[in-house]
Amino acid sequence: MRIVVIGANAAGAKAASKAKRVNPEAEITLIDRGNFISYGACGIPYYVSDTVVEVKELMSTPVGVLRDQVFFRKVKGVDVITETEAVVVDWRNKKVELWTAVSGTTSFIDYDRLILATGSSPLIPPLQGSELAGIVTVKSIEDATFLKEQAVSGKRACVIGAGLIGLETVEALALCGMQVTVVEMLGQVLPGVLDDEMATLLERHIQSHGVQVMTSCRVSCFEGNGHVEKVITDQGEILADLVVLAAGVKPNVSLARNAGLEIGATGAIAVDDHLRTSVPDIYACGDCCETTHLVTGKRVYAPMGSTANKQGRVAGINAVGGDAVFNGIVGTAIVKVFDFNAGKTGLSEFAARAAGYDVEIVLSPAPDRAHFYPDAKPIVLKLVADRENGRLLGLQAVGSGAVDKRIDVAATAITFRATAEQVSHLDLGYAPPFAAAMDNLIVAADILKNKLSGHAKGVSPHEVKKKMEAGEDFLLLDVRSPAEHEMMRIAGAKLVPLGVLRDKLDSLPKDKEIVTFCKISLRGYEAQKILNAAGFSNIRFMDGGILTWPYELEK
Amino acid sequence: MRIVVIGANAAGAKAASKAKRVNPEAEITLIDRGNFISYGACGIPYYVSDTVVEVKELMSTPVGVLRDQVFFRKVKGVDVITETEAVVVDWRNKKVELWTAVSGTTSFIDYDRLILATGSSPLIPPLQGSELAGIVTVKSIEDATFLKEQAVSGKRACVIGAGLIGLETVEALALCGMQVTVVEMLGQVLPGVLDDEMATLLERHIQSHGVQVMTSCRVSCFEGNGHVEKVITDQGEILADLVVLAAGVKPNVSLARNAGLEIGATGAIAVDDHLRTSVPDIYACGDCCETTHLVTGKRVYAPMGSTANKQGRVAGINAVGGDAVFNGIVGTAIVKVFDFNAGKTGLSEFAARAAGYDVEIVLSPAPDRAHFYPDAKPIVLKLVADRENGRLLGLQAVGSGAVDKRIDVAATAITFRATAEQVSHLDLGYAPPFAAAMDNLIVAADILKNKLSGHAKGVSPHEVKKKMEAGEDFLLLDVRSPAEHEMMRIAGAKLVPLGVLRDKLDSLPKDKEIVTFCKISLRGYEAQKILNAAGFSNIRFMDGGILTWPYELEK
């Protein structure tokens, strides 16, 4: 049995190796159009910033063995052909036509089963000047080498796109001492990952590292004399010695499409839960194919190195006659930018509303471990839930603390369709160096339960701001301590510290709407309960407190 | 409606506050025999080591407000009576008799609903000399103050008990510069948490910090002239200026038992899933009551600050007429000791076998993030699964890296009765600063799948050692590189690097059992597959590789 795998990165390399282990009789050939195989493209920003010193490390096993042709032959029992492109799949005759540019030769390879792992390519915006020298993507080892050469302290870089790769590259170039501007067409950083109020917290952090962030900004062209010098946008010109295109990726589907394989509505290769394409004996895995979002049940295009590895294993097993299933993903994404971590799993509020859910949300900032433990760092969680059944639909988390842990726990809970009630009772590990007695996620789930049951009534910072701007007659009640109020405050808010609220009820208007808030919203919620108990009826607390207020503060 | 809560720490304080929020009409009285209330006993070791500077921090909210009587009155609307012990519960007349030692007065309080949150007490071994000065437990604020005074650099401390609190205290005292010995009656550190091979890894780390670890060691008495000077054990005398008793805790049930409430087989107060005791209108929560282990379905005593908070909320809601449920725990525990983290969730292999499961295990060491990322630190995972259905029963994790994340994810997965297959496809967050493309847990679950399906055949380091000692005729095959072999090796193992194995098959005996291994077991598994494919039939790989070999190595 001969298995041919097209594409020798995460998915393809995994599929080939796994197929050989499952069926040692099988003859496995791994074909790649590039020179370098099985490298960690996700590591490129860390190579650029010198966090990873040698490019070889991105292409090596954890014990330092280079994953090259010899490695695949000797260790994995897999033949690798590099610098050779699969140009035509003739599935009726189970044959692939190959083109080797260096030798200028065409050849053919027969297969019993074919695995397409053709990956993705950076989107290149069709703008004038895109071909200028100094404009680069973040995908290949060649890109990595070029970026590292160009990342010179004091020079100017412009990164187009504030998505995951864009922001990782922003960090890398800034750490190299470059003056960095990031341009995002949409109105926030990490669109599609974070809701806007969460994105604002990240954006502030990025700006605090001297990076200029331009959102809702459209690039019209690039200018320069051979080498790029300027990025022209609808918000003005940006001088740039280096331009990085990080406006997203698209699946490489031309080989599949030309062969007549079904392409899904997402633009990626359509596969079933066994990663079979529409043509018998052809599988697809990794960045070239679509998958299922386990929350919505919809087909999505969500390329990710982690998913590629899992899918490679499944495709490899099935190609040699096994019966493995890949059900889908929950849309987890995570990124570190300077000293800030930001992650998402499941649906954002925006995505959940767009999908038609009746949504409840919680904004909950808190230290990531026992507050008295000196390493404790703040993180903000945003839970998104389905009001109908209390099911958790998504979690976003940002901050300098352990965001990744809460994202992974929520990804697991969402996979099992957990409700707020179930999340609030998870037996998560507790010791002061790791978490508070009530983990951030438990606290957030408890707030969610309070909201779903009607005990707690929240209002988002956005809505509060809108009410202010509309001149609505309501009282914004700050229940923090005088010392906290002194440090920073929201203009127009009245201070009545929680500790004296029960004694000062007479000073508050019973006929007016009152919005309570504190640092993080827990005292705000206590205040709501105290006021409700005292007969005030129109009380809400501001989600997330002053810590998630994305507008100006008096200091 | 009057709610009386006995015990004003985690569970009691939570229950009282929650009850008031749910029913502001209710009159809530919180009674504690101590002087200090609502403090974080789990923080004591960090106060002792000066990681936490002021004892006040352990009794304050995250914004620094002292959780004292005034706080509970003003903020929570709860009356607190301290230094007053509940001595008799007369449930027929719904009355509690109170004794206030300072004033020498007896009084009575009526209740409509009573919540027992009487907590736990350190076990004091009934040994001669236990009453000597300088012998202390780790429970009260008074203990904390005493320990901090006594923790003097250069002096000798002996900690009795190598459980969670014992080891946290060992770290604290060693960080203060004391010469520390820890004595454990059982054969390993963290008995009941870790299996022995995992405990060995932690024990080595503790020893590397200059702490003497004495396991399988029984204390017979304490000696000293008024103040403790020596701990006498069956392994000899230990000089000690300070002795810490950390041999576990027992639930405080005398009040409940004397009142005729049912005490469970675990010795703790029996409660149902609504935390109702056997007597109407009396609830119990926190360290004084038992709970259900969600894996075995059995009643267990598993006191933990995190559980106490969750149960307090449930008891508080139910006491004022609500309908909240606490289903149970999965036995999660975690501890930091010096630069090492150790955690467990679900069942250990030992506990799973004792419970009658047909067990499969995986030992999987790996870096906790992308191996090329400089902050990557090693962690070792041990998965325990049910062979019958592939369900994950437990995870243990030790190492200097992010153990807590994997424990929490596994705790969540185990709560939802996840199988190896489901765990292996979890959509966990991936970016190089947080995880490898295949997270440690995914890798371990894949190995588990390989074992459950019969593709991979493992043998534990323990079994290998036994085979060696029994003089069995088998070949131990090291498939690492010559450079790795040079650094450290298992005596008697033959070196054939994986990269040349396919070429050297003739040098290996086909009729003999071969046990393969590498650094972590992945190449060991590859070697097993290569040998199987070449017609060798009796091949297993050593679980966890040389990194989890708990015996001597040649260097």
From TrEMBL, chains A, B:
Organism superkingdom: Bacteria
InterPro entries registered for this protein in UniProt: FAD-bd_OxRdtase, FAD/NAD-bd_sf, FAD/NAD-binding_dom, FAD/NAD-linked_Rdtase_dimer_sf, Pyr_nucl-diS_OxRdtase_dimer, Rhodanese-like_dom, Rhodanese-like_dom_sf
GO MF annotation list: oxidoreductase activity
Cofactor(s) required, per the database record: FAD
SUPFAM superfamilies linked to this entry: FAD/NAD(P)-binding domain, FAD/NAD-linked reductases, dimerisation (C-terminal) domain, Rhodanese/Cell cycle control phosphatase
Gene3D superfamilies for this protein: FAD/NAD(P)-binding domain (3.50.50.60), Rhodanese-like domain (3.40.250.10)
Keyword line: FAD, Flavoprotein, Oxidoreductase, Redox-active center
Ranges for domain Rhodanese: 470-555
Homology family: Belongs to the class-III pyridine nucleotide-disulfide oxidoreductase family.
PANTHER family listed in its UniProt record: NAD(P)H SULFUR OXIDOREDUCTASE (COA-DEPENDENT), PYRIDINE NUCLEOTIDE-DISULFIDE OXIDOREDUCTASE DOMAIN-CONTAINING
Protein name: Pyridine nucleotide-disulfide oxidoreductase
Protein species of origin: Oryzomonas japonica
UniProt lineage: Bacteria, Pseudomonadati, Thermodesulfobacteriota, Desulfuromonadia, Geobacterales
